[in-house]
Specification:
single chain
Length: 70
């Protein structure tokens, strides 16, 4: 019979597990910074795309308004 040999997890996975298990205050600060950064990035993406999507929506509305309904 062959034995199953488990390879040790790469160092990055060990660090992520350790970071997730850590209950120190610094981890809380890290989460706040990460979520704030993601919120800012999301706001930037929305602000960059809102004009284009509004224009496309208006164009679609114009085309549909011009089409006769049978």
């Amino acid at each position: 019979m062959s034995e199953v040999v488990q390879k040790p997890a790469p160092r990055i996975f060990q660090r992520v597990k350790q970071w997730c298990a850590d209950t120190e205050g610094a981890v809380t600060v890290d989460w706040v910074v990460l979520t704030a950064t993601l919120a800012v990035i999301g706001g930037i993406v929305v602000s960059m795309t809102v004009d284009g999507t509004t224009d496309v929506g208006n164009q679609i509305g114009t085309v549909l308004a011009e089409k006769p309904v049978n």
